Amino acid sequence: MAEPYGAPTWRSLTIKRRFIPDQGRVTYQPPQNWFTIVTPLLGLCHVEYPDGSGWHQTTLVVGDTSRLVNRSAMRLWRPPSGEQKFEVAFIALPTQHFRDYADEHPEVAVDDLSSLENPRVSDLVVAPMACNLLRAQEAKMGEGYALRAAHYLTAHLLHSHHGSQSNTSGLKPERLLLVTDYMRKNLAERITLEDMAKEASLSRYYFIRQFTAATGKTPMQYLTGLRIEAACRLLITSDELISQIGIRCGFLNPESFARVFRKHLGCSPLQYRRRNFELRPSPMW
Fold it and tell me: How confident is the model at residue 2 (pLDDT cuts 50, 70, 90)?
């Protein structure tokens, strides 16, 4: 049975947090005339989504989003791994926001909102914003806050889509997903450019050019970003030793981990853990 979306607290957008127990399943039906963003808050899960050729599967981790509009139900479930809990946020925006914004900014207008749909895309804007929206909702922030947040999200989605469409010389989406999935699944290993090029079935030279055109980053820069994202998640959601987290995320030694982490975030892993300890998602119920 599909889970109801729940009565919205705000009119300009809605947000709901759900907990998926180990081996549990949730079926989610996007509301009509709303654009929905699904993003994990804690842990990972598998997602099944339909298209004209049947059901397809991908995996969402913290930092990923799945974007839907007027699509039939999607299924989310956790693998029987005994790993940490999984919490996910559902953010929904009225599709009218997109039409209103496109009227004011015709350069980013889209003919059909379904072109914004994506079963899995890393988004370092939307994913952290979900936690802020939940805290604002719990604090009973007013409709003005929700309207500003909805406007910001709408602008972000349209402009990021326009930017990706303006560059058609990069890797095709299916090849890009293959490579980024390979990176995520092997973060602890030594991944070379040759390994990634092989996943994309391209020569090393051509792969670097195509990947950089598609993402705006070199493959190694992108891989380092994924390692830092994974480390941030583990620093907040686990009690593992920092040195062990560095190894799990593919850094050769604690010194290398600390140096790269500070370069990206301006603080040490320990400082990041201390600053964000109080921001761990609270239980839903």
Answer: very low
User: What confidence score (pLDDT) does residue 37 get?
Assistant: 93
Which domains, and CATH codes, for the chain? 14-165 (2.60.120.10), 173-279 (1.10.10.60)
CA–CA gap between residue 113 and residue 56 (Å, rounded): 21
pTM of the model: 0.58
- The set of long-range contacts for 147-154, using a CB threshold of 8 Å and a minimum separation of 24, is 147/12, 149/12, 149/13, 150/12, 150/13, 150/93, 150/94, 150/97, 151/97, 151/101, 153/13, 153/37, 153/91, 153/93, 153/126, 153/129, 154/93, 154/97, 154/98, 154/101
Strand bridging mode 86-94 / 34-42: antiparallel
The percent of residues above 70 in pLDDT, for the chain, comes to 85
Please give the average per-residue pLDDT across 199-228, as a whole number: 88
